[in-house]
Design brief:
- This protein has about 800 residues and is mostly beta strands.
- About 5% of the residues lie in helices and about 65% in strands.
- It contains five helices and 48 strands.
- The strands form six sheets. The chain has a 22-stranded antiparallel barrel. The protein has a six-stranded mixed β-sheet with strand order 11-12-17-18-15-16, with no helix packed on it.
- The chain is globular, with a radius of gyration of 28 Å.
């Protein structure tokens, strides 16, 4: 790490306190919400100005709320809560403002002698994001991956996720980045009961890395009560194979201290069935190689974290978090039966029978320090994040058998056994400082700096078994010493007028990356972004947004070495890959109260795709670059069929185009596609809730590949019990087995057709129990700046 960079970072982080404190001109609004003398927890508090929402907040378990960073002016304050009439009042902010005790009146309706009140919406659409209220659905025992499958705007293939086609996704867990290497484990071990809400940010601002196309921000539940609270959960699911997980979540709060610990365990018998078919032309005629491949993995995932938070005072908080993920697959087995024929689907004249044994172990640790400082009561804020992530991986793969048989079962020939050992270690260091500076004339300034350093050492050793001994294969044995350093800074300004809000920002990034003795790359780029939000007729809002971003190729993709897959398939890196740049333009807004429309245009250059070429009988898979574009329109419709029945419809249509060299050909193709999503939540008496989801994805093309249609259907029943502390969930996932992915590719003289299925049609039964105090008085020594209101409310 360059000492000059550390010096610059430390200097900027230190001077921001003095710089920002000199200009702060915003204030805070506090109050308490009660009904019949009892505090109302989790009431929604909304501040709006000129019909535009400026701030939102929820009351705590004592009914108290504190809204910060409020610019001076006249506002409308609206308070609402389930089962109560909404309360509105005008407030004028010229300094720290206490609105006092706000009394709500009950508002309920009877249905078959059961009280039915307003319910929280599962999905909400905002100008730059989707927001999922996980507690409003039946996802308490579902994994994050299953939750993503049910979201209509998400595309999930195995462990790969995308939002409206955007694949470069940053995942934040309580504002701390989740390393990409641990994402699979977090998605499979974290369940819905731990999550308060998920924000799917489709238009990231300048604060986020330029390599990020979308952000998934997961907000976990944190108890507000003093003492010990927590939950336990367990789920069993059955498809072709069994899976199970269990978890424990504990929070202890005392005075200014908060201690939170989580542990999740998942054991899965993972079965993947792949039909890989390739047909190509040789001087001697056509040849097709294809057949079923089955993979079985007995996987154990451990996911543990502990965090300690300390409120120094009402303006300064420290949080230290340790997160450990362990992923072991001690006994993986793969078997394939590849037939050789003159065309796909014809009778085979010979077959390759292969057996492969694997043993994988991955460990990841993530340690973070987070400081948030509200430098004065007006809301000027600074944040410092330090993250250290050591990673380790060990992969062992033995092709123990490769025999070719004739149709009558006679052994024709055999290939030697192949052993591949891949061990790697590395670490990631992130230093980030962000500042927020509001002014009294509706201006807001944000700025920040970030330094990211990655190191990874990988040793790949491959050998073949001949004459009773393992002999090294020099063409497939190599060592990688990878480095990547990124220095970034950004500044963004926001200005609000009566019905208009303008936001402009720019991010600067300098990247230095390479593999020792192989390549060195340096990029220095500017990434602007801008947005305009305008109020139009009927209090509707329309927004225009622009963003430029980058996708850097992975170091493994750029190393020119070859990796042995089987006797007829290899992987080869491409050191000539270039960064991919893209520009996104969007316009969106409210068509009506419940209808949201977005139009978007995406243009990208040098996007990396894994594509094959044929060398004799061997298919060599190589990352190549293509250019392309996409026009899209998506419509969200949230509606209430009855007071006890909510529904959401989503449709997205798009036109795609891509072009670029593919082996000796030049590909230039385009087409149209769409996807549709329907979700419905029905609340019955006696604590029953029924959720139904159906998502359909029409055929589409992407950089040479053509994907056939797929779908996902889910039906879940949730029962509240034990005084609503427990939830029992019965779920049916992928009811129509629509997550069987099919794709095809024509690459010169090679045609590829794949079918992939990951055992997603499943029935699961899960239970969650929450324990601890749900509402208690705050300890007398806990100082949050609103003690006077608490005393008067009680």
């Amino acid at each position: 790490m360059d000492r000059r960079l550390i010096t610059i970072f430390s200097f900027l982080s230190a001077i921001n306190v003095a710089f920002m404190g000199a200009f702060a001109q915003t204030h805070q609004v506090s109050g308490a919400v009660i009904a019949k003398g009892i505090p109302v927890a989790y009431a929604s508090i909304v501040l709006s100005q000129d019909s535009l929402i400026t701030k939102t907040k929820f009351s705590d378990e004592e009914g108290c709320f504190l809204i910060e960073e409020v610019a001076p002016g006249k506002y409308l304050l609206k308070v609402s809560a389930v089962g109560y009439q909404a309360l509105e009042m005008a407030v004028e902010i010229s300094g720290a403002t206490d609105v006092g005790i706000l009394q709500l009146q009950e508002d309920s309706a009877l249905l078959d002698e059961v009280v039915v009140t307003a319910a929280r919406k599962l999905l909400d659409r905002q100008a730059d994001r989707f927001v999922m209220d996980v507690s409003a659905g039946s996802f308490q025992t579902s994994s994050l991956l299953e939750i993503f499958m049910a979201a209509p705007f998400m595309q999930v293939k195995g462990d790969d996720i995308a939002i409206n086609g955007k694949r470069n996704i940053l995942v934040l867990l309580d504002n701390v980045p989740v390393p990409g290497a641990t994402l699979k484990q977090v998605l499979n071990t974290m369940n819905g009961n731990e999550i308060d809400k998920i924000e799917f940010i489709t238009i990231p601002g300048a604060r986020y890395d330029a390599s990020v196309d979308a952000v998934i921000h997961i907000h976990t539940k944190r108890a507000l009560a003093q003492g010990i609270t927590g939950s336990v959960n367990g789920t069993y699911s059955q498809g072709d194979q069994a899976r199970g997980n269990m978890g424990l979540n504990l929070t202890y709060r005392k005075d200014r201290w908060t201690l939170n610990g989580r542990y999740g365990f998942n054991r899965s018998n993972l079965v993947t069935t792949i039909h890989n078919n390739r047909e190509f032309t040789l001087p001697s005629g056509n040849l097709a190689i294809g057949g079923p491949n089955s993979e079985f993995y007995d996987t154990r995932l451990h996911n543990a974290s502990i965090s300690v938070g300390f409120n120094i005072n009402e303006f300064h908080q420290l949080t230290v978090t340790g997160h450990i993920v362990k992923d072991d697959t001690p006994n993986g087995r793969m078997a394939s039966n590849l037939g050789f024929s003159s065309a796909i689907g014809h009778a085979a004249d010979s077959s390759l029978m292969a057996e492969i044994n694997t043993e994988n172990s991955n460990s990841f640790e993530n340690y973070s320090f987070n400081y948030v400082g509200k430098l004065d009561s007006s809301g000027t804020q600074t944040e410092l994040i330090v993250i250290y992530t050591p990673v380790g991986s060990s992969r062992y793969r033995v092709v123990s058998r490769q025999d070719i048989f004739l149709p009558d079962g006679i052994l024709e020939s055999t290939f030697p056994s192949i052993r591949n050992e891949n061990r790697s270690t590395g670490h990631i260091v992130v230093l980030q400082s962000d500042w927020q500076l509001p002014f009294d004339n509706q201006w807001r300034l944000e700025a920040g700096v970030r330094f990211n350093s990655s190191r990874n050492d990988a040793d790949i050793n491959q050998s073949e078994y001949r004459d009773g001994t393992w002999l090294p294969m020099s063409d497939y044995t190599f060592t990688n010493r990878f480095r990547e350093d990124i220095v970034a800074g950004y500044v963004a300004a926001q200005k609000r007028w009566a019905g208009t809000q303008v936001r402009v920002g720019i991010r600067v990034e300098n990247t230095d990356m390479g593999v020792e003795g192989v390549y060195d790359r340096r990029f220095f780029d500017f990434f602007p972004n801008a947005g305009i939000q305008q109020e139009i007729i009927g209090n509707r809002v329309i927004s225009f947004n622009y963003r430029r971003s980058i996708a850097r190729p992975g170091f493994g993709q750029m190393t020119p070495f070859r990796t042995y897959l089987n006797a007829y398939e290899l992987f080869e890196g491409n050191p000539n890959l270039r960064p991919s740049y893209s520009q996104t333009f969007t316009i969106n807004g409210d068509v009506s109260k419940n209808v949201f429309l977005e139009l978007a245009y995406l243009q990208y250059r040098d996007r990396t795709m894994q594509l094959p070429r044929q060398e004799g009988l061997v298919s060599v898979w190589t990352p190549l670059s293509m250019d392309g574009s996409e026009w899209s329109a998506n419509l969200s419709y949230l509606y209430k069929i009855a007071s006890w029945w909510d529904a959401n419809s989503y449709i997205r249509g798009f036109r795609y185009a891509y072009e670029g060299p593919l082996n000796n050909d030049y590909v230039d193709e385009s087409g149209y596609s769409y996807n549709v999503g329907l979700t419905s939540t029905v609340r019955f008496p006696a604590g029953f809730t029924l959720d139904a989801t159906y998502n359909y994805y029409a055929p589409s093309g992407y950089a040479g590949w053509y994907d056939f249609s797929s779908n996902f259907a889910r039906l879940a029943i949730r029962k509240n019990m034990l005084g609503k502390r427990g939830q029992l969930v019965l779920a049916f996932n992928d009811i129509f087995k629509g997550q069987r992915y099919r794709s095809e590719l024509q690459a010169g003289n090679l045609y590829v057709y794949n079918v992939n299925y990951n055992d997603t049609q499943r029935v699961s039964l899960g239970f969650v129990f929450n324990f601890g105090k749900s509402t208690v008085k705050m300890a007398e020594r806990k100082k949050l700046g609103n003690e006077d209101i608490i005393n008067r409310a009680n």
